[in-house]
Amino acid sequence: MERITQRAYAKINIGLDVLRRRADGYHEVKMIMQTVDLYDELILEKRKQPGIALRTDNGELPLDGDNLICKAAELLIREKDIQEGVNIMLTKRIPIAAGMAGGSADAAATLRGLNELFGLGYSVPELQTLGVKLGADIPYCIVGGTMLSEGIGEILTPLPAPPAAYLVIAKPDINVSTAYVYGNLHADRLTWHPDIDGMIDALRKQDLGGITGRLGNVLETVTVREYPVIERIRELLKMQGAENALMSGSGPTVFGIFKEKETAERAAEAVECGKLAKQIFVTTFC
Ligand code: ATP
C-alpha cells in the first residue's frame, strides 16, 4: 500500500461534568462524547526520503512540529524506527479551537492511517495508549461513536448511540483556548452538576427527550460569562425549535438538537441572519 485516506470526525459533548482538579493540575471529568457527521480528510502517502511533509487547504494552521498531525506521525516514526517518510494532505472542515476536538481527531486519524499504511500491527488499545501522550481526547477519537469518558478523558466506556436527530452546529467568530477555560474553572465551587447517569439511562432507553432534557456542560460557567454570544446562540436555537442546545467542550461552538431537518435548516439560517456565527453546519450524530 502506498497511500491511504482517513476521515477525522468531530465530536460534541452532550454532557460534560468536572469532578475535581487533581494535584497534578489535570481535571477529572465525566463526560459523554458523541461523534457528529462533520470530518476532516487526511491523505497519507509513503515517500522515499525521510521526514513528514504536511500540506493543508487551511491558512491558519501550523504545518511544522506544532501541528498535532506531525506530532502523531513523529511519535510512530520514532517508536517503530521507520526509515521512510510521509506526505500528508489535510482538508480541514472542523472549526479550529472550537471545542470539537478537531486537532485530536486529526492526530487519531494519523495514528490509525500510518498504522495501516506501514503495517505496524498496533491494536486499538495500543494506539490509544500512544495517543494519550499527545492529548486526553485522542484515545476517544481513535474509536469515536458514543462514549462515557472519565479520568482525564482516557477511561472510555461505549454507550448506545442516541436516537436519530438533526443538529445545528454554530461556531461564533471567537477563539477560546481550552487551557484558559479549565484554568478559570473553580471545580470545587460548582453549585450544579449535569445528570450524566440519568443521561446514560436515557441513551439506554433511546429516549430523545430524556437526553435533550439533561444536556449540561459545567464549562459554560466560565465561557458564557466571558462571551455572551454563546448564550445568544443557545437561546436563538431554542426559540427556533431546538429540543435543547448546549456549548460543546470548552466552546465556543454551540449545538442544538432538532427532531426535524427543516426546522434545523431554518434555525441555521436564523443564526446566519443574526450574524452570530461564521461557521454553521446542519448535520447528524454518527
Ligand atoms: P478540544 O475540543 O480537544 O479542546 P478544540 O476543538 O478546542 O479541541 P483544536 O481545533 O483541536 O481545538 O485546536 C486547538 C489548537 O491546536 C489550535 O490553536 C491549533 O493551532 C492547534 N492545532 C495543532 N494541530 C491542529 C490540527 N491538526 N487541527 C486543528 N488545530 C490544531
Could you please describe the fold and organization of this structure?
This protein is an alpha+beta fold. The protein has 2 domains: 3-158, Ribosomal Protein S5, domain 2 (2-Layer Sandwich); 166-284, Alpha-Beta Plaits (2-Layer Sandwich), CATH 3.30.70. 33% of the residues lie in helices and 30% in strands. It has 10 helices and 11 strands. The strands form 2 sheets. Strands 1, 2, 3, 4, 5, 6 and 8 form a 7-stranded mixed beta sheet that branches. A 4-stranded antiparallel beta sheet has the order 9-10-7-11, with helices on one face. A hairpin with a 6-residue loop joins strand 9 (244-247) and strand 10. The chain is globular. 42% of the residues are buried. The model has no long low-confidence stretch (mean pLDDT 96). Bound molecules: adenosine-5'-triphosphate.
- What is the typical, i.e. mean, pLDDT? 96
Small molecules bound: adenosine-5'-triphosphate
| Domain tally | 2
Q: Ranges with pLDDT <50 over ≥5 residues?
A: none
Helix count from the secondary structure assignment: 10
CA radius of gyration is 19 Å
- Our measurement of the CA-to-CA distance between the termini, rounded to an integer number of angstroms, reads 28 Å
